[in-house]
Amino acid sequence: MSKYEIVIGMEVHAELLTESKQFCGCANVAVAPPNTHVCPVCLGFPGSLPVLNEKSVELSLRTVLAFDSKINKHTIFERKNYFYPDLPKAYQISQRLFTLGEGGCVEIDVAGQDGQVQTKRVGLSDVHMEEDTGKSQHGEAIGDPDSSLVDFNRAGIPLLEIVSAPDMRSIEEAESYMATLRQVLLYLEVSDCKMELGRLRFEASVSLRPFGQEEYGTRVEVKNLNSMKAVRDSLRAEIERQTKILDSGGKVQQQTMLWDEASGTTQPMRSKEQAHDYRYFPEPDLVPIEIDNAWLDRVRAAMPELPRARRQRFQTDYGLSAYDAEILTSTRDIASYYEAALENYNNPKTISNWVANELLGRLNAENKDIIASPVRPTQLRDLVKLIDDGTISGKIAKEVFDEMFMEGRDAILIVREKGLGQISDTSEIEAICQRVIEANPKAVEDYKGGKERSFAALVGGVMKETRGRANPALVNELLKKQLS
Amino acid sequence: MRLTPEEVDHITLLARLELSPAERERAAGELSQILDYFEQLKQLDTENVEPTEHVLPINNVLRVDETRPCLSLEAVLQNAPEHASGMFQVPRVVEAE
Ligand SMILES: [Zn+2]
């Protein structure tokens, strides 16, 4: 156990799921040939004027509402001034004084000391709208050690920044925070959250302090984190680095570090960008935004049930375990699939097993999204119905499901075509039992001598004769009757 | 109010201006004068005046989320002093390892 308490805060940048950019009509796309989605506005040409995208305000409001932030009904944009080649106007349009949202919190699940899951609230300091910058590549990577190349396709893409309070106390809490935030943004359809494309970006700030000390230690920001794993690994490396400094009586420097995946270490960022002096002032090219209740009502009406609420409802309404409810609400599409399968057929437990185990298992194995599932929700429901009404056994159902998954056909058609229907006809099963008994005198003798296991062998014999189609309960009953 | 040479240096750096010693001297004088005017303005009683964020009396100028045609790559790069691979080429901004 370390003698230092870990203090982590997170800044999240999410590119919003809009058609066009924040202030111009260029398409908001993550991958395209360089500088093919740019115009005078997002290139910052003199005389061009920005006009705010209504959809991006709406998506931002969804987020603010979801995290219970206080909404600034009067909000303005400001210019954040700095020079960098990927910032064409030499300022970024952002928010500082009246950000769209202030405060609020993200509720995360963390493991308590007794191993039980506990809810923890990670506070937010603010949620604000801004625009993304262009992208640059440097030096050797582009075959010229003295140059950088700049692509402005990303410049002006609507960006939402969510800044947390330094409320996380472990790497596990930071991971839970990231996963929760990502899940909510996906549910809200605010962002596609593709970290590998930079659509969702995390920056962590981390400091250490001796347990019991009230004031925070010197914080270090860690950037260049393009996966959840990078966040985890970089935090671990940075905490280790700071622990060593403090242990040897040194002082942690306030600075920005870059995560270097290859060496597994954090390295001080070296940039020609000068000390931060952003000289914010109100953006004269954009008028203020006034958000009235009617607008908020419209946004609320378009909001889906959030993952936490849906998970709890699945437990209370459908009697699912916390674990099953978590799997079935892991994405909005999985939850919707499950509920579509439940429609008009009240067997939530069995259907949950089929979705969570068979279906998701097969989809994962083939790297398919549930949206692309070859088995539709109603088809899965009908399969479960066939089990419940005794037409097929659970074992046969798996066989049928495999066919359905490969061919997308209805269960009943496969059952009929392949003659997989369960045999529940007493006289037919009696005849088969008779044949099996006659063919296995040794097993019969052993059973009568008290060997229970021999009975299972006889049941197996019947099942083999019927290719698994005999109704198991009936087989048990009739075999016992004939043997007594 | 006279700006110190350090303050002038900081301002020219933020504005990415390179000034000769004579220009710097002149800028210091002119900038100081501008600041003096603001000192004068600050004498106004603004106790009951709301801060102005915008001079136009309108709000909520928004556009529908629709795409519009972009510039051709040729047009985009035509004023670039240097470009390569469809990108703007600038002096290296991140220091070499
Ligand atoms: Zn544009």
Distance between the termini of chain B: 44 Å
Instruction: List the strand order in the largest sheet of chain B.
Output: 2-3
Order of helices and strands of chain B: HHEHEE
Proportion of residues in helical segments of chain A: 25-40%
Summarize the structure in words.
The complex is a heterodimer of chains A (484) and B (97). Chain A is of the alpha+beta class and 484 residues long. Chain A folds into 3 domains: 4-297, no CATH class; 307-418, no CATH class; 426-483, Arc Repressor Mutant, subunit A, CATH 1.10.10.410. Chain A contains 15 helices and 18 strands. Chain A has helices spanning 54-66, 171-187, 228-247, 293-301, 307-318, 322-328, 332-342, 348-365, 377-388, 394-407, 411-418, 426-439, 441-448, 452-465, 472-483, and strands at residues 4-15, 52-53, 70-71, 74-75, 78-81, 91-94, 101-102, 105-111, 117-131, 135-138, 147-151, 158-164, 200-210, 220-225, 256-260, 265-268, 281-282, 289-290. In chain A, strands 1, 3, 7, 8, 9, 12, 13, 14, 15 and 16 form a 10-stranded mixed beta sheet that branches. A 3-stranded antiparallel beta sheet of chain A has the order 6-5-17, with no helix packed on it. Chain A has a two-stranded antiparallel sheet with strand order 4-18. In chain A, strand 14, helix 3 and strand 15 (256-260) form a beta-alpha-beta unit. In chain A, helix 2 packs antiparallel against helix 3, helix 7 (332-342) crosses helix 8 (348-365) and helix 13 runs antiparallel to helix 14 (452-465). The model of chain A has no long low-confidence stretch (mean pLDDT 92). Chain B has 97 residues and is an alpha+beta fold. Chain B has a domain at 5-41: Histone, subunit A (Orthogonal Bundle). Helices cover 37% and strands 9% of the residues of chain B. Chain B contains 3 helices and 3 strands, in the order H-H-E-H-E-E. Chain B has a two-stranded antiparallel ribbon. Chain B is flat and about 55 Å long. Chain B starts with a helix and ends in a 6-residue tail after the last strand. At the A-B interface, strand 2, helix 1, strand 10, strand 11 and strand 18 of A face helix 1, strand 1, helix 3 and strand 3 of B. Bound molecules: zinc ion (ZN). Zinc ion (ZN) binds next to loops of chain A.
